[in-house]
Write a structure and sequence with these properties.
Layout (H helix, E strand, L loop, with lengths): L5 E2 L2 E4 L2 E2 H8 L3 E5 H14 L5 E6 L6 H9 L3 E4 L2 H9 L7 E3 L6 H9 L4 E4 L2 H14 L3 E8 L21 E2 H11 L5 E8 L9 H19 L6 E3 L16 H12 L5 E4 L3 H4 L3 E13 L2 E6 L8 H5 L5 E3 L6 E7 L8 E9 L6 E5 L19 E6 L2 E6 L4 H5 L4
Helix pairs in contact: 2-9, 5-6, 8-9
């Protein structure tokens, strides 16, 4: 099912032409398909319907309040990694009881806020963090539900910057250390040990790393039960990849088959943390061509979107398909670059692209995840608008910043 079709030679998001949005809202602008997001939530729900489960959307992928609000309406829970993300979830109408809190550097303030919100559980990433949660729970008179994020030392085969499940990474706790910590925490009256967690990385396109991780986790759960530690949840994280450039990641149903088969006899509720797969292919960044610059044999297509608007190519060398909003028959080999004063400010390099001319609109595809959420005000550029399309209607869900917004908090 495709939510960005061409109709009459014009690229649409659902039933709305992208050039109409660009005319009304300006460029650059992020445009999201509500139907695309809802479809992915449905696919995940259907894939895991045979077993008790909770889908906790990874807020870091796209934290717009309107996106969170719709996911909450569709029954999703949320995975947060900061007090700010928890604030967003609660403000958008999400339930604290459907929130899991990840991250290796939780502060006292964040822990206190999560306890007040009565979140489902903390994913604890170190013994020191566990001690801080114990202390904060005692001070607030709350009992903290926790799951330990274990590190199975599995290579997910993804970009090293988004790999999280090996000993060399800052995330999680080695299994032998986690075993000792479980034994210690079960004696603490301030703590209720409820689960075990594993997250090995992001943009994973093969099932093998998941198979290795789930087998390790299964054995660990069996060991804990032998020690008299009873668990209720198995949080298997997120990380399932999407197609950016011809990749063929496993479907939600194939992924679910693997996880369910390996865990069905454990009697645990599965917690899944999908993010990119929910919103990644649901978004596009629409940008306008400002200049064409020929420098010897090299052609540069300069657009009004910069690396401050879309960091992923500069940060990861990521590939995003670039389509013309007005369908074109001819192509050209060129770089697409932005206006930022950095050589890393590019969207595409040495790519066969539509034959863009100044004034044309380009759509940078698969930017719904880690697009706006990684954006910044670098070079004192106001952050762009965000638009949500639903059928034949659209709404601005984040207005474009102004120059006044840039200095609003400064003295």
């Amino acid at each position: 099912m495709h939510f960005f079709p061409y109709a009459g030679g014009r690229l649409h998001c659902e039933d709305v032409a992208l050039d109409e949005i660009a005319r009304d809202v300006g460029t650059p602008v992020y445009v999201y398909s509500e139907a695309a997001m809802r479809r992915q939530v449905q696919l995940f729900s259907e894939a895991f319907q045979k077993v008790p489960h909770l889908i906790c959307y990874a807020v870091k992928a796209n934290s717009n309040l309107s996106v969170i609000r719709r996911l909450a309406e569709w029954g999703a829970g949320f995975e947060v990694v900061s007090g700010g993300e928890l604030f967003r979830v609660l403000r958008a109408g999400g339930s604290g009881g459907k929130v899991v809190f990840d991250g290796p550097g939780k502060t006292i303030g964040e822990i206190r806020s999560a306890l007040e919100a009565d979140i489902l559980f903390f994913n604890v990433e170190s013994a020191a963090e566990a001690d801080l949660i114990v202390e904060t729970a005692r001070e607030t008179g709350k009992r903290a539900r926790v799951s330990l994020r274990t590190n199975p030392d599995v290579d997910p085969g993804t970009h090293p910057y988004i790999s999280t499940g090996m000993r060399e990474h800052k995330f999680g706790i080695a299994l032998e250390e986690a075993h000792e910590l479980y034994l210690r925490l079960r004696e603490r009256p301030e703590i209720e040990v409820v689960g075990v967690t594993c997250h090995i990385g992001s943009q994973i396109t093969q099932l093998e790393p998941y198979r290795d991780a789930i087998e390790s986790l299964r054995g660990f759960v069996t060991t804990l039960r032998g020690e008299g530690i009873s668990l209720r949840y198995l949080d298997f994280g997120g990380g399932l990849g999407i197609a950016y450039n011809g990749e063929e990641p496993p479907s939600a149903s194939r992924y679910a088959e693997l996880v369910i088969e390996a865990t069905k006899d454990l009697g645990l509720t599965l917690v899944l943390e999908p993010g990119r797969i929910i919103v990644g292919n649901a978004g596009t960044l629409v940008t306008r061509v400002t200049f064409i610059k020929d420098q010897g044999s090299k052609r540069f297509i300069i657009v009004d979107a910069g690396m401050n608007d879309l960091m992923r190519p500069a940060l990861y060398g990521s590939h995003h398909q670039v389509w013309s909003v007005s369908q074109k028959a001819s192509t050209q080999v060129a770089d697409i670059v932005g206006p930022i004063c950095e050589s890393s400010d590019f969207i595409a390099r040495n790519r066969e692209l539509p034959a863009f001319e100044p004034g044309d609109l380009a759509a940078v595809m698969s930017t719904g995840a880690y697009g706006f959420s990684l954006s910044s005000n670098y070079n004192s550029r106001p952050r762009v608008a965000e638009v949500l399309v639903s059928g034949s209607k659209y709404e601005v869900i984040r207005r474009r910043e102004t120059y006044e917004d840039l200095i609003r908090l400064e003295l």
